[in-house]
Amino acid sequence: MMARVEDVVIVGAGIAGLATAVALKRAGVEALVLEKSDGLRATGAALTLFSNAWCALDALGVSQHLTSLYAPIKKGYVTDIDTGEIQEVSLAASNGNDPVRPRSVNRKALLKALADELPPNSIRFASKLTAIETQEHEGSSISVIHMGDGTIIKAKILIGCDGIHSVVARWLGLAEPVHSGRWAVRGLAVFPEGHRLDYNVQQYVGLNRRAGFVPLNDKEIYWFFGTSPAKGTDLGDEPEVIRQEVIENYAKDLPPIYLDIVQHSDLSTLSWAPLMFRYPWNVVFGNLGKQNITVAGDAMHPMTPDLGQGGCLALEDAVVLGRYIGTSFVQNGRLVPKEIDSAIGKYVEERRWRVALLTAGSYLSGWAQKLGSGWVRKFLRDTIFYRFIFTKLVKLSHYDCGKLDF
Known about the structure:
Residues 7-327 form the FAD-binding domain. By secondary structure, the protein is α/β, with parallel strands linked by helices.
């Protein structure tokens, strides 16, 4: 079978994959995106994008399609489930001068905004990668990609954006992600007549539990519930069962407003999944790239969602990788193998420590916020974590990954 040759192949049409394709397009580099599903997937329902993500979306030229649809978050509140105590937490820079407030957006809308920037036929759905090999071609390395339908594609550059269980990351030899010990339910509630709530993040924390919600617009509210369930507990994949378990069991003592939001869930958006992450030292010391192959997004840095940085970092990855590859392409007028190796190496080194730090910070945040209400635990969570550590972690989101000026 004759193999098709592509300049760039991106595996996975999630946030990282589509954003990387958009970044490369701005430099004039065409990429083929391979997605194993039949359409754009939106597991997780929604996500909060902090200022670092909006800087990346500005560079990609798509932020304006989303800012008109979703309102900025005003404030964040954390309620102790056991005592009812409420404290306000800052989501902005400590100097109060943050020019871009975080916004929570529908994941499908974000994916569509990115996909709409790409030329027709850039995304090939129902395309499952089964194996990767490399060949030497005219003194350089070229990737040979084997697909489930028997198709063979050769790529000058291969970028794995294929999620937590990445085939590309496994080929690179990256350590497998590990289970954090926690699971989460996530969903989108819809109020056709409007919910009439302020645009604030509301969280509820207690021993081994963390829940919350945030309005996206005047009709949609994103909600989540995280816990460390008893061994063997599995809510399965039936949305109605998942919703009832949250209402009648896990969250039955939470405020009525939270239960009402869960009750209004669009069942098609509900998911129950383990929270996985890659140990930060496996990111720092791991093989994140080799010659013409690298990874981005969850394929590089799966992390727990406790800082809301997974999707934000994926957008950063796309801009940084697109800038290095795009600059090489523009300067040489084509993709030069030795320059490709150098570009990917620079991308890996620029991203390695930042994503490892935020992976560790996310895990620490999740651990601290599920502490109970004993005085020692409350002191660690409310005084040490929220007043000192959390504010420093939030500052890490005030980051500009740069522009795409080609």
